[in-house]
Amino acid sequence: MIKFTQIFLLLMSFSLWEILATYKIIDPFITSQPSRIINTIVTLYKEGVLFRHIFVTCVETIIGFTLGTLLGTLIAIILWWSEFISKVSEPYLVVLNSLPKIALGPVFIVWIGAGPAAIIAMTLAISLIVTILEVLNGFMAIDKDKAKLVQAFGGTKLQVMTKVILPASLPTIINALKVNVGLSWVGVIVGEFLVSKAGLGYLIVYGGQVFKLDLVMTSVMILSVAAALMYQGVVYLEKLLIKRYEV
């Protein structure tokens, strides 16, 4: 019933959008409309550039998403492992998390160069600190008595991490993955706004510059579908892990 309602609301929204634009109640030049978006997709496909732009953005997003999650979790483990490092780095993490990441874009371009590496760096800048803080908070929330019990039976700190902390933190890590889906797409699109010569972010910028709002809205719709599919992939992974580890 929930899925049916969601699909119904989506179809009604697109239908209303199409009707309002067709009868000029809203300006289709500014807002576009579903039929014009479909025509734009067909045009991009015939020109042979549709899948190239989608591929570029998706690859950059997946790389940024994967690196952000792995590095964030690894750094969170290090901070959990060493209370000294955790205390020293805490104010720096808070400050870095509060920085406007978009302002770092030109810095990355100068340091790394105008290319995919700068876009991935922007993605990491947006998602990494959030992942570290969220996963670390999940580690710290685990019942300390469980860790003490393992240590009482001669367990090492590594065994506490692998047998207690990580399994109990799977829901937190999955939530971090869900958050990272959105952050990764934001990071990639912002990076493509600044430096890319291909990708959906590039199409949005180009469409805005030449007043092709159909192209802008088409890119936004494709981004929405891609982000939704990626999120559903994380949800599927969550179900597999819950079934396997019964968390």
Helix and strand layout, with pairings?
Blueprint lengths: L1 H21 L5 H4 L2 H13 L3 H32 L1 H16 L6 H8 L3 H25 L3 H9 L4 H12 L1 H26 L4 H10 L3 H33 L2
Helix pairs in contact: 3-12, 4-5, 4-7, 4-10, 4-11, 6-7, 7-10, 8-9, 10-11, 10-12, 11-12
The share of residues in helices is: over 70%
Mean pLDDT: 83
Identify the CATH architecture.
Answer: Orthogonal Bundle
Helix/sheet category: mainly alpha
The DSSP helix count reads: 12
Tell me the number of strands: 0
Assembly classification: single chain
Strand residue percentage: under 5%
Under CATH, the topology is which?
MetI-like fold
How many discrete structural domains?
1
Task: Please give a structural write-up.
The chain is an all-alpha fold and 247 residues long. Helix content is 85%, strand content 0%. It has 12 helices and no strands. The radius of gyration is 22 Å and the shape is globular. The model has no long low-confidence stretch (mean pLDDT 83).
Tag the structure with descriptive keywords.
85% helix, 247 residues, mainly alpha, MetI-like fold
In brief, what are we looking at here?
Helix content is 85%, strand content 0%. The chain is mainly alpha-helical and 247 residues long. It has one domain: MetI-like (MetI-like fold, Orthogonal Bundle), CATH 1.10.3720.
